[in-house]
Write a structure and sequence with these properties.
two-stranded antiparallel sheet; 16-stranded antiparallel barrel; 2 helices; mainly beta
């Protein structure tokens, strides 16, 4: 999901390219929530940049990769508040694994690969690495669908790299370790079509059960997005997530949630970029985000983003964000509120 300069051996006509590369990434941030939470935690459905009124590390990664014509592998270790909160359900020894996977090319004539291990998720246009996203903070949709997955996948890419097809068997919905008493495999697919150099369309799916088998509830999820770069300066992302989960084991009725999103980006030159985001997340029955309120989670969000790139190593990003919910789901002192406003600024370093 992210690519920064590695330290491969210099290339010349007499030396082979070193297949090993390594990368270092750090996202150091300060965020201020104007609701002033006493425990320094922003709303519980955020897992990135989620500590209030303190300087902290969102994500630090050191990653080693190996790539040849027929074999590939990558191992990354991480630290930061992203790992602390987003992997809280995983065993302690796995919470610092950013990725650990290996793959082999299984066709002599086609670009067909089999990969297995802990991998970045196949869902969404946002990754855990801030610098690869158009906005500093993540959309509510991205924060509440998988960032990572564990399992095996087979991937085919056409020779012109316009079409990617992938199918996978997984341990669950953002799971390295299965929940106790869960032996149900999960499945995923991805189809990515690069119409041209400026337009990319994607459809990803997930089917699985995230509960013990005794109360199995099948979940069906679709993630669709399009990335449109109209010019070198101006781009647009449109996204739509739609999910449904059985109301009970064996039920023919489903609880549904959905979330549309829009991101507009303007980058006048190589050093500055500006982005605006609008989003809506509707989860009335609390499948993903439970509130215990009459209307469930029905929240609009908007944000404005300013980025300054100093060089290929250092970025400074800032964002102001507002959320407005139908019910009073946010805590403000000893009271409840329908709104939440926050400011986040971040220094991003890559080596």
């Amino acid at each position: 999901m992210w690519c920064i300069a590695g330290h491969a051996m210099p290339q010349d006509s007499t030396k082979r390219v070193n297949p090993f590369t390594w990368n270092i990434y750090a996202d150091i941030y300060y965020s201020y929530d104007f609701n002033k939470p006493e425990d320094h935690l922003k709303p519980s459905f955020f897992y990135n940049h989620n500590r209030h009124n303190e300087v902290n590390l969102n994500l630090g990664v050191i990653k080693a990769s190996y790539n040849t014509e027929k074999l590939r592998a990558s191992v990354g270790l991480m630290a930061g508040t992203y790992a602390q909160y987003n992997l809280a359900a995983e065993p302690a020894l796995l919470r610092h694994v950013y990725e650990a996977n290996a793959g082999v090319k299984i066709s002599r004539n086609s670009n067909l690969w089999l990969d297995a291990g802990i991998m970045p998720a196949h869902i969404g246009y946002e990754s855990a690495v801030s610098k690869d996203n158009w906005t500093l903070t993540r959309s509510i949709a991205a924060e509440n669908c998988p960032y990572y997955e564990a399992g095996a996948k087979i991937t085919y890419t056409t020779k012109n790299e316009k079409l990617l097809l992938s199918a996978m068997i997984l341990n669950g919905w953002q799971r390295i370790q299965r929940p106790d008493a869960n032996n149900t495999p999960a499945f995923g697919t991805q189809l990515t079509f690069k119409v041209n150099s400026k337009t990319t369309l994607n459809w990803s799916t997930f089917i699985g059960n995230d509960k013990p088998d005794s109360v199995r509830q099948w979940r069906y999820f679709n993630n669709l997005y399009g990335i449109f770069k109209f010019t070198d300066e101006f781009g647009l992302i449109l996204g739509l997530d739609i999910g449904q989960e059985q109301r009970s084991k064996g039920s023919s009725t489903f609880n549904v949630w959905y979330t549309p999103s829009l991101v507009i980006r303007f980058a006048p030159g190589n050093n500055w970029a500006f982005a605006a985001r609008g989003e809506y997340y509707c989860d009335e029955k609390g499948v993903i985000i439970s509130t215990g309120t009459p209307n469930g989670f029905k929240t609009f969000g908007a944000s404005l983003n300013v980025d300054k790139k100093f060089n290929d190593v250092f970025w400074w990003r800032s964002e102001i964000r507002t959320l407005n919910s139908k019910d009073e789901i946010f805590t403000k002192g000893i009271n409840s509120s329908k709104t939440n406003i926050s400011f986040t600024t971040s220094f991003v370093i890559t080596l």
